[in-house]
Amino acid sequence: MRRLLLASSSPYRRDLLSRLQLPFDCSAPEIDETAHANESAEQLVRRLAEAKSRALAPSHPDHLIIGSDQVAVQGGEILGKPHTLERAMAQLKACSGHSVSFLTGLALLDSRSGRLQVDCVPFTVHFRELDEARIERYLRIEQPYDCAGSFKAEGLGISLFRSTSGTDATSLIGLPLIRLVDMLLAEGVRIP
User: Fold this and answer.
1) Which of 23, 65, 66, 188 is placed for a possible disulfide with 53 were both Cys, Cβ 3.0 to 4.6 Å?
2) How far apart are the C-alpha atoms of 110 and 108, rounded to whole Å?
3) Containing H/E element for 50?
4) Which tens digit of pLDDT belongs to each residue from 85-100?
5) What is the 3 state secondary structure string of 161-190?
């Protein structure tokens, strides 16, 4: 079987990919993640997922390289990773009682043939009404400052949701496994 390479340093993506019980390596690509002028959120995540996989192709010439990128969109604005308590508070206050769309770009590059598959998998989170005390308690417990949207759906963040909608819940965590399995099968990878 061809070696798989996850173009990411994200522990969340690594944990998700390990669910498929396939051997894989990880390497963090060095790319500029700045959005282009007039680029939609979907165009951004598709471009970045592809760029991450292509950045590692020269050093991994016989791999299937998985690139992924995610943005959260609320009220037409892209929510980045908050990095601080104050920014996370502001993000969750803005999300309170509203819906947030998560767009996850996914790319699978066969670095030997150059064949590329790219997709964008949407997922929507509908937030409960959240008061400031509840938001602060959550942030102090989980500290999700490296997560777009300021929560960890795989942890206590689930308590902030009224409901979710989408075809692949793993896309919310950053690596849509259902779509990835489709891509891997198209490359002849046997799962399971």
Assistant:
1) 65
2) 7
3) helix 41-56
4) 999 999 999 999 999 9
5) EEEEEECCCHHHHCCCHHHHHHHHHHCCCC
Q: pLDDT tens for residues 36-85? A: 999 999 999 999 999 999 999 999 999 999 999 999 999 889 988 899 99
Both tokens of residue 50?
């592809």
Whether 110 is a known active-site residue: answer no
Q: Residues 25, 69, 110, 131: which is the catalytic one?
A: 69
Q: How far apart are CA 114 and CA 54, in angstroms?
A: 9
Write the Ramachandran bin of 174: left for phi over 0, alpha for psi from -120 to 50, otherwise beta. Answer: left
**Secondary structure letter of residue 28 according to DSSP:** -
Query: pLDDT (tens digit, 9 = 90+) per residue, 142-167?
Result: 999 999 899 999 999 999 999 999 99
Do residues 5 and 65 lie in contact, with contact meaning Cβ atoms separated by under 8 Å? yes
Packing angle between helix 132-142 and helix 85-95, nearest 10 degrees?
A: 130
Q: Decide the pairing of beta strands 77-79 and 24-26.
A: unpaired
Supply the DSSP string of 79-144, one letter for each residue.
E----SHHHHHHHHHHHTTSEEEEEEEEEEEETTT--EEEEEEEEEEEEPP--HHHHHHHHHHH--
Which H or E run includes 53?
Answer: helix 41-56
